[in-house]
Amino acid sequence: MPSSTTWSSQPFRTLYTVGFWSINIPHLLYLSLRNSIAPIRTVPQWGYQLSMGVAILRALFRYLAVIRYQQPRQMVPGKAQDRFVLIAPPDATLFRGVLGAPAAATKPEPVGAVWYPAVPIPAPPPPGNNGATAGDPPPPPPRRRVIIYAAGGAFVTGWDPDENAQNIAALATDHFDDAARVLCMQYRLASRAHPFPAAVQDLFTAYQYVLGLGVAPRDVVLMGDSAGANLVLAVLRYLAVEGLRQPGGAVVFSPWVEVTAEAVQKYSRSVASRYDMLDVPLLEWGVDAYRPQGRTLTQEEEGYISPLHHPFPLKETRLYVDAGSLDGVYESISVFAKQMMDVAGNRVRFHTTENMPHDYFLTYPLLGTKEEACAALRDARDFLSA
């Protein structure tokens, strides 16, 4: 397939766009009529909004995969204003092993991120001693969880970070922690210039930044969906392997745990590939862009990129894994969760949300799956707080 640069510099992108949507808009209209009749819906268990939301996303993902469009990262405040932060990488000595090996194709770079509803920095005490005696330490700030969120998109597509932060915070404050702050970080989208471990470096940078604000590791929750969930698992593995401070919890929705060309081919032959939002061209693009090219990967690297069959000890972190029962990659997620549970000392919960497709969490506003997303968050909260 041509690169995004090629498409943008030639008239073929416009021609393809016209042709693609001239075919797919009538198809979506047909699906709209079909899905309005419950007995003949594509997936009988789904309502109209869920059916059409998945169909729209599926078409959009195929279009983006063919033209290879990647949303530019936000590196300036924009509409987020003072909620935007540009995070410098931490000390270079923290990047070691697979994140700092000489063979790594990428080096750490600044990371753009958006807070919601505000940066969790305690306000300075008011003037005067307020009844305190000289030398008394100031009272500790109230505890509140910080959620660092990495959105999905097969490693190659981007989302509006401000909108994501608002959507996730809207759920988290009502159903996870009413004092939570959400940091929606923007990792480098995968390309030949930024394959693994670029995105893992970026999430690790965001985590170190939050710790640098004085937030205790036990109050940090790493959260992600699909490819973003894969990055969460990679950072957890890195922290455990390198003996670094680990977060109190991690919540992953629909994690992409088998990032290989063989797995994509297997999915292409499955029944789910005909109804779920995971479109084969998007997955092929993600695998090709994220996996480093031109050399044989080590088993250690494979564990970070494709964690299925590569379980690891969590030590200090509780891990909550959720997947929809109609997720096209449900089987691989359930196997991975079982493998993680079997590691001595790990505290892992696997939760199945019935009749949900892939990544119903991030896309809940379009799919109408807020109730299911909230229920999963409440279950995750109870598990992480036990």
From TrEMBL:
Alpha/beta hydrolase fold-3 domain residues: 147-361
Q: Which UniProt keywords apply?
A: Hydrolase
Lineage top rank: taxon = Eukaryota
Question: Which is a Pfam family this sequence falls into?
Answer: Abhydrolase_3
Q: What is this protein called?
A: Alpha/beta hydrolase fold-3 domain-containing protein
Task: Give the species this sequence originates from.
Answer: Apiospora rasikravindrae
Q: What is the lineage of its organism?
A: Eukaryota, Fungi, Dikarya, Ascomycota, Pezizomycotina
